[in-house]
Specification:
The structure is a homotetramer. By secondary structure, chain A is an alpha+beta fold. Helix content of chain A is about 20%, strand content about 30%. The first copy, chain A, has 7 helices and 24 strands. The longest helix of chain A has 16 residues, at about 230-245. The two termini of chain A are about 20 Å apart. At the B-C interface, helix 1, strand 1, helix 3, strand 3 and helix 4 of B face helix 1, strand 1, helix 3, strand 3 and helix 4 of C. Strand 3 (about 80-85) of chain B pairs antiparallel with strand 1 (about 30) of chain C, so a sheet runs across the interface.
């Protein structure tokens, strides 16, 4: 407990009778609250997950080596290498709710189709040439794009080029596993459509600002827009900073532009368990220290800067990933214009009523 | 009543006693239901509003003449000429809920700022050169654009050119008047900002598909996107027809593409009382006959075709407007590609639980 | 306009040319905005409906006389006498949206079944012995009860006793008529079930606080609870005043207890167009003056007091009804404990974004 | 994987190079998906939690013994003994999301006040005499009652009698711990109000069916009704079975009545993470086999019968508890009238889009 003036009066004397009681508890599959309340009901969140940084310069060569040694195909399904939070005991969980991996697809390779209850997205920090086929709709993957494969949508990937490509996958695998909600089904061993259109059918239907097809009036749990293109994200952020220059409200704090990717049928998060955002800092910006309930992962998209996590500052470059566990204080600092992709479990936290945040020592 | 086998057994004999009763009712501000139920509770809606067509070729010259004779300015506020449904007894109501007008602004003129509880939009069938200033944000008006001035937003217009411009205004004036919900306030006698930017601040913040500013997470009653540009509308409709060509679901019925303009914070209608849509028919398309509860107004944007309203067919050209009263059967027929803007009171009907529709004799 | 310093500069000289223009407008079914804006876009709501009071002591004898002279049955459907607002030009509308009537059913009479899109309720100020059969479910009507017959539910009434009974009906007939949303259908000429159970099936399923049948998990547009019993209403109000005595938050203002009747599937209004409430004032209470957008009707259920409507005070007794048009200032004053039933069009106003209110000169 | 015809082609040869790659992965806190996908992305949920039954006849004496040996008070906070699912490795978790405990309070004892982000309820299978004080409001605890202490509400308990009392506590401790959302704060060392009213203030305000205080129009995340009384639950279930006898729709399946406890401000679940229900089977009823995503706990309230969990049948008596892990097939069989309280994590599952269920082999 946080208050040392409260001694625990529920520490009974260690008698034979008490030991027998505890043994009898165990035999009946029982455990007392009073011996473990400090652990399981902490004063503030005490995540086992640790703040940690993965360097793209080390991830990418390892992905390349796995490309040479490990074929992609049915069974393992994806040449994806998960980021394992050092505090989470040997599971490939970046946070208790989220999975993040680098996925690598060699020239002309195909990752076969499957579907699962888990929600997934991909974000492309560099490269191009792969198409993701989502429920039969081929979706181009290019630098800066966010691509969705929401729960129970069939999807596969194929590389249409003679060079490899890598990107990051984000999923709610830990959450699904922990709460026993996962289903999985194989699809085609190849992707169902090898076409390589510039724009997916989903974008052609839904990618027009403020315009909804009359054939699609039913709201959907996840976004029907399979691709959020860099061109739009970049323009939105650019405009926010220009508006700030003009003295207009647009940024969330001085020098800090940001957008949330949303489901156009509702204006809410793209998927029920994962929030996706993109942040841009002007050169020379320091964001206020803040902490939030729930966990986040960031990837540097471009520019140079650093992250301060619980007082420890680390310099970051393109492709680097870092994780912010629940209630961990963080602040960003930019040297150049600094672009970051972010995803988190905020929809889980908010829909279940657990959201709290603190900025720079303000009352929570 | 619809069933002639039911005689009205509540027709008492016309006695002196009954006459005295009815006179006493009147003296006490009372009226029996049984003598008027057929009128006030009809078997199906029996609108007083009539189907009617206004020709742009006659509207526009009248607007021009008013430009010469009537100054625009404070008091009258707008050089707007309302379309008066022939069935609605001399009020400038195009339906019981909706107002439609042609507004005309001469070279270099300004229509002063004001705000009102009534929701309003403008749709531009031809021309350019005017800016609407909405809560201080200058919004360019160009051909094919939909511009919003939701309830209680200050707005004025100014013509930045040496030629006149005309467009249509749509409002919920009849609904507001009938239900006593209207408020009105004068603003600046000039517009507050004579800048003529290509894109308004609202578009720069909100006009990116599926991207929401993190500074704007609170949902709004009306759309924050003041302008829906023709370029986007046209592309969305074009894609729907191309997708149909490819055998993909996209149109609402064969040859009939359509979009609804929506509030990006919710995916719902742009304003709480007015729905706005745009429809495009391929050449040679005939839509099924349908009828709906609630009233609509259409304006031909481009192309040639005709409207069948209660069995009466009328040929239509660019700029022509027609009104479809509640539960009136309508069908469109196209000769060329046929583009139509539509607005209606559907949000009122749906939010209050009165929606019904029938297509081609299907059971309602 | 509210600001007399603004002359209307849009009053062009009355020339022959202008007259010709106006005549040409008329020929084309057009009307200028500038000549009528003061009327149709007022600074604040200027309802045609007037504040008015109907005395139960005069209503009831007239209902009795109609019982003697006018049979009840098919065609006229109901022996209901509508309260016609003196400002609404000879229609039986108590406000632009609401209908209120006294309905009278003689000993052993039946009012035949029908259904209509209009939403309806009954409130019983005195008497008992009638059952309303709603979609086949017989619902007892007793003093102080609120009974619902939401849109498109079949319903009829029958008097199981040897004495007559009267009550008030509230409907959205004016709103439905004005907006052309009404449908009507005859049902059985008799009621479908002459059983006289103490509690309806709807109450037996739904009338348990905070308990929802697992067989009824789909939310409904209108409340599934056909009857709200006086016993519960009285107890809820009594408790609020006792809590106030104990210094606990419970009343809406000192001495003023109130409940809203709600749909248990949503916690919202009982029907999409009509709000129903019950108010109780301690003896000697004066409520602050207030005005609201939207119109209300009150009926005195018990006690003595008075209503101040736009500065005019009128004393009220059991059964008296009064109407508060939109934006009309009102205040209640109680001599004894003072109980009032209220219904209004507030759900229309709120769902469509027009709600505003003012209390005692506070800024709106 | 479920399909044995798919061999895992992603099993590369066990070479030195591969071993080095895997070692390098580990050094960089990385783990491949392909070696663990079968575990973390199962075809259907494969809960670690096991179906299990705890006998009240063994729980209660252990609670009594702890009453003699362990004082209740600050630090340990509650004399609560958690049910530890045998599959969950030594934590007092009954499912991955839910905590269930028997709590025991001796004569005249007080459990001190505290609050926590975790949502909690108590259900009383026998006894009376304790009051829970929730945010200062004393709430009587009696047989058959459900009592809520939603997240961040202060609460303590005190026994006003000379005999002990025991009940079950249900919380979302595992979910909160796993996802790092927990906060905890001490309150008064005694309860703030030792009054013992028959009804809490929350019940007096909110416990009237379909009536909402006008002073409480803002919807709340959790139910404002701190107590759901047995008298109401029993009556609701009795009526469902009587309606079934009359041939009316009321039960969820023949012989199976059930209610969900709901938040009267929304009609939805009482708390954002925990669903509470009560089920009653007529004597001689067998429910169809079903399985659902998400986990449940049942306690027998009265009567005799048995539970079939994954083909294993166990006889149950009053007070016995059993757990149904995710996607575990279950069916109830009653000998007498059989009453069961149920709680589950269904709101988590549904709000996050993971709900699925199967009844008797029907397609999921």
């Amino acid at each position: 407990m946080n208050d040392e003036s409260h001694s625990n009066i529920m520490n009974p004397d260690d008698t034979a009778e008490l030991r027998q009681l505890y043994a009898d508890f165990e035999a009946e599959h029982l455990m007392p609250l009073w011996t473990q309340i400090d652990d399981i009901m902490p004063v503030v969140p005490k995540p086992k997950a640790l703040p940690h940084i993965w360097k793209w310069s080390r991830l990418f060569p390892l992905a390349e080596r796995s490309g040479a040694l490990v074929p992609v195909g049915r069974g393992g399904e994806r040449r994806a290498i998960g980021l394992a939070n050092p505090g989470l005991g040997g599971k490939a969980y970046i946070t208790p709710t989220l999975w993040a991996a680098i996925q690598y697809l060699g020239p002309r390779e195909t990752a076969p189709e499957h579907r699962h209850a888990q929600n997934a997205f991909r974000f492309v920090v560099e490269g191009e040439g792969v198409w993701t086929v989502v429920n039969g709709d081929p979706v181009r993957m290019s630098r800066g794009d966010l691509l969705l494969t929401p729960g129970w949508h069939f999807h596969g990937h194929h590389n249409d080029t003679d060079h490899p490509m890598a990107w990051i996958d984000g999923l709610d695998i830990p959450f699904s596993y922990q709460n026993d909600v996962g289903f999985f089904e194989f699809g085609a061993d190849r992707v169902t459509d090898y076409a390589t259109p510039r724009f997916s059918r989903g974008e052609r239907l839904w990618g027009h600002p403020g315009l909804r097809p009359l054939s699609e009036l039913k709201d959907t749990v996840s976004s029907p827009l399979a691709a959020y293109r860099w061109e739009h994200t970049d323009r939105a952020l650019t405009e926010q900073l220009l508006l700030e220059d003009e003295g207009q409200p647009a940024t969330i704090e001085p020098g800090h532009a940001a957008i949330r990717y949303v489901n156009p049928t509702t204006g809410g998060d793209v998927m029920p368990t994962i929030r996706c955002e993109f942040h841009r800092l002007r050169a020379g910006t320091v964001t206020p220290s803040r902490r939030e309930v729930g966990s986040s992962v960031f990837q540097i998209f471009e520019g140079a800067g650093s992250i301060m996590l619980n007082q420890v500052e680390t310099r970051l470059e393109t492709g680097d990933l870092f994780v912010v566990p629940s209630w961990t204080t963080w602040s960003l600092k930019s040297e150049t214009q600094f672009d970051l992709f972010r995803f988190s479990d905020a929809p889980v936290i908010e829909r279940l009523g657990f959201a709290r945040s603190q900025i720079e020592g303000a009352a929570r």
